[in-house]
Specification:
Chain B: Keywords: ATP-binding, Nucleotide-binding, Transport. The complex is a heterodimer of chains A (388) and B (336). Chain A is an alpha/beta fold and 388 residues long. Chain A is built from 14 helices and 12 strands. Chain A is globular and about 70 Å long. With 336 residues, chain B is of the alpha/beta class. Chain B contains 11 helices and 12 strands. In chain B, a hairpin with a 2-residue loop joins strand 11 and strand 12. The N terminus of chain B is likely disordered. Classes of the chains: A alpha/beta (388), B alpha/beta (336). At the A-B interface, helix 8, helix 9, helix 10, helix 11 and helix 12 of A face helix 7, helix 8 and helix 10 of B.
Chain lengths: 388, 336
């Protein structure tokens, strides 16, 4: 395996709040290989944006505090070395945010903003004199060069009439156009690594489709690596090579898109994938309960209070490590402790979940066959079969 | 305007005919009317008792305005809304009061639709206070009953909305809508603000309530996959007009309108098995145009992948393309 471009090891981030100390990120390991797109999926409040902010060096500190962890970008540790982080951030990282209206300034035109990005990129320290020179129009880079570069980028993002767009304010553009401008601005610094935090969440499906196409085109063309944060599993499938499923500040499951979405192993990813309304079917049971309170997170596995397959005395005591089941397929769940094959373990998890659910209140029209009324005998039989 | 015959139930709960809601654009010193935005432009549909009709469309297509106009939160500028045989489009505020008991609305964002300064018990009892129904004890009893109905613990009565999670808040909003035993609920993106695992539970609750109480739902949403699973019939809306209207099954198995095809093609699928329902990949052009200056002819023609010269000249009508299935496209005329 080649060296990963980005590696995050055992990250722990705490926040100091009025309610106490919130242990938001609890040991996240993450790698992105060269030229790979990795998606982090999870529901709101699971810590996916905090992870992205930490990588980008944009975590507000305080209230945030990086308690533990290492971040390697091309084998260079960044979390312990602020200047190195700043340098890598300006030289190699690019970020695309969710809401273009709050990340673009309403009082500057697109052209002014793009020129500023070009003037100040790759600079960590800018003196007053230089800022003054830039304001009066004596920039280091020539205006014509900057203009050409802007036009080229806007053109590549299929923005109609790029010349005209440069003189417009963000409010004059539609949502899709703003997002394109934002991507163009992230590309201005010629980054090697893109971090995209829900860039299509505010958009309609047809526009989202266009933006995803454009983004993957840019990534392929420039041979970029990308960390893509989203809550939409379908979007993750379209854009990513691998998916990290995150729950309550921990990574629940890692694998390729097909692995995770067609055959989820962790009880949380299973519940999540089942709950998404799909064109084929839709499981109306959802997941019981709520995301835990981070000031008093559950002991053991953080998912155990909501887990349909939780085993008392084990899941609430031991924090599950990530078991590697196959190449690149990792699951943080005690069900997979004994080195079962994914298929066998999956079977057990499914039957266990169904029997546990059968005793609870199930309502709503069922979607597709579910073997919830299976007898205990046949269940044990199947578990033995699976173990063989 | 629609020459499609609708031979559904003889006695639908709601029959909307050529509904129009135009907003004037004023300009100049004297605030003279210089144009209008046709937010809802000649929409017709019927909603049977105990049925769910979903209106899907992109942002700005007028689906929320349609819902609010049907609930008479807006006054229509044309057409009729026959609710239980009575045209409620022209009623005065005083005449509307009994109708308001029958039609209730649940909004997208529960944090902004629940008063943060009131306790849950007062929020749920508010409709009874407004309509002056019941004694204090009866109201208290009804609130307990309603909370149980939406699977919330009774002691939530004394809490404030901010102490509840998003899913629980939405349950309170549903309980409030049910207080006066309505027959029609207008659900305006009821689960868009919720996470999927919570959304599944709220949807399941809505279906259970529909089964038990015989409610009719007019559901407004942008999530096509969701409508496939819960709606009986679906209307696809674009720039104020219904582009296609069909039973859920036939809309997904056999979409007739190019716009529906594009919407379907743009859904990012989660599971491999879903691919069977998606038409071949269509590359989509542009974005929703400015509703104050809609394109000539068919309003969708600038973005359509099957556009021909005629599209910019003639505005197609809704025509029958199958049983209870109507669509609006110039290509339908060719086959007739």
């Amino acid at each position: 395996m080649t060296d990963p471009i980005l590696e995050l090891r055992d990250l722990e981030v705490h926040f100091n709040t009025f309610d106490g100390r919130a242990e938001v990120i609890n040991g996240v390991d993450l790698t992105v290989e060269e030229g790979e797109t990795v998606a982090i999926v999870g529901e709101s409040g699971c810590g996916k944006s905090v992870t992205a902010e930490t990588v980008m060096g944009m975590l507000p500190q305080p209230p945030g505090e990086i308690v533990n962890g290492e971040l390697y970008y091309r084998d260079e540790e960044l979390l312990g070395d602020e200047t190195a982080h700043e340098r890598v951030k300006t030289e190699s990282l690019g970020m695309i945010f969710q809401d273009p209206m709050t990340s673009l300034s309403p009082v500057f035109t697109v052209g002014e903003m793009m020129r500023d990005v070009m003037t100040y990129q790759n600079k960590t320290n800018v003196g007053w004199l230089e800022i003054f020179r830039n304001i009066v129009g004596r920039r280091d880079v020539s205006e014509a060069d900057m203009h050409d570069r802007c036009i080229e980028l806007l053109d590549r993002l299929q923005i109609p009439d790029p010349e005209g767009i440069l003189d417009r304010y963000p409010i004059e553009l539609s949502g899709g156009m703003r997002q394109r401008v934002l991507i163009a601005m992230a590309m201005l610094g010629e980054p090697e690594f893109l971090i995209a935090d829900e860039p299509t969440t505010a958009l309609d499906v047809t526009v989202q489709d266009q933006i995803l196409d454009l983004l993957s085109e840019q990534v392929k063309r420039e041979d970029l690596s990308m960390l893509y944060i989203t809550h939409n599993l379908g979007v993750a499938r379209r854009i990513a090579d691998r998916i990290y499923v995150m729950y309550a500040g921990e990574i629940a499951e890692v694998g390729s898109c097909e692995d995770i979405l067609d055959e989820p192993l962790h009880p949380y990813s299973r519940g999540l994938v089942d709950s998404v309304p799909k064109l084929t079917e839709f499981d109306r049971e959802g997941i019981e309960g709520l995301i835990p309170n981070y000031t008093e997170p559950p002991s053991g596995c953080r998912f155990h209070p909501r887990c349909p397959a939780a085993v008392a005395g084990e899941c609430d005591v031991t924090r599950p490590p990530r078991f590697e089941l196959a190449d690149g397929r990792e699951v943080a769940c005690l069900l997979y402790e004994d080195g079962l094959s994914p298929a066998a373990a999956n079977e057990i998890a499914a039957t266990e979940a169904d029997t546990n659910r059968g005793s609870g209140t199930t309502h709503g029209r069922s979607s597709g066959p579910r073997e919830s009324d299976e007898s205990i005998e046949s269940l044990t039989q199947r578990m033995e079969d699976a173990n063989e | 305007m629609s020459d499609a015959t609708d031979d559904r139930t003889d006695d639908p709960l709601l029959r909307v005919q050529n509904l129009e809601k135009y907003y004037p654009i004023t300009g100049g010193l004297l605030k003279k009317k210089v144009g209008e935005v046709k937010a809802v432009d000649g929409v017709s549909f019927e909603l049977g008792r105990g049925e769910t009709l979903a209106i899907v469309g992109e942002s700005g297509c007028g689906k929320t305005t349609l819902g609010k106009t049907v609930a008479r939160l807006h006054e229509p500028t044309g057409g009729s809304i026959l609710f239980d045989g009575q045209d409620i489009g022209t009623l005065s505020e005083r005449e509307l009061k009994p109708v308001r008991r029958e039609i209730q609305v649940v909004y997208q964002d529960p944090t902004s639709s629940l008063n943060p300064r009131k306790r849950i018990k007062d929020i749920v009892a508010e409709p009874m206070t407004v309509h002056d129904i019941g004694t204090k004890a009866q109201r208290r009893e009804r609130v307990v009953e309603l909370l149980r109905r939406v699977d919330l613990p009774e002691d939530f009565r004394y809490r404030y909305p901010s102490e509840l999670s998003g899913g629980q808040q939405q349950r309170v909003a549903i309980a409030r809508a049910l207080t006066l035993n309505p027959s029609l609920l207008v659900l305006d993106e009821p689960t868009s603000a919720l996470d999927v695992s919570v959304q599944a539970k709220v949807i399941s609750l809505l279906e259970e309530l529909q089964d038990d109480l015989g409610l009719s739902y007019l559901m407004i949403t942008h999530d096509l996959s969701l409508t496939k699973n819960i709606a009986d019939r679906i209307g696809v809306m674009y720039l104020g007009k219904l582009m296609e209207k069909a039973p859920a099954a036939s809309l997904f198995d056999d979409p007739q309108n190019p716009y529906t095809e594009q919407l379907l093609s743009a859904i990012p699928i989660v599971e491999e098995s879903e691919a069977a329902y998606k038409p071949d990949r269509i590359s989509i052009q542009g974005e929703t145009p400015d509703p104050s200056d809609p394109p000539s002819g068919c309003s969708f023609h600038p973005r359509c992948h099957r556009t021909v010269d005629e599209c910019s000249r003639t505005e197609p009508e809704l025509v029958d393309v199958g049983p209870d299935h109507t669509s609006r496209c110039v290509h339908h005329d060719d086959t007739d």
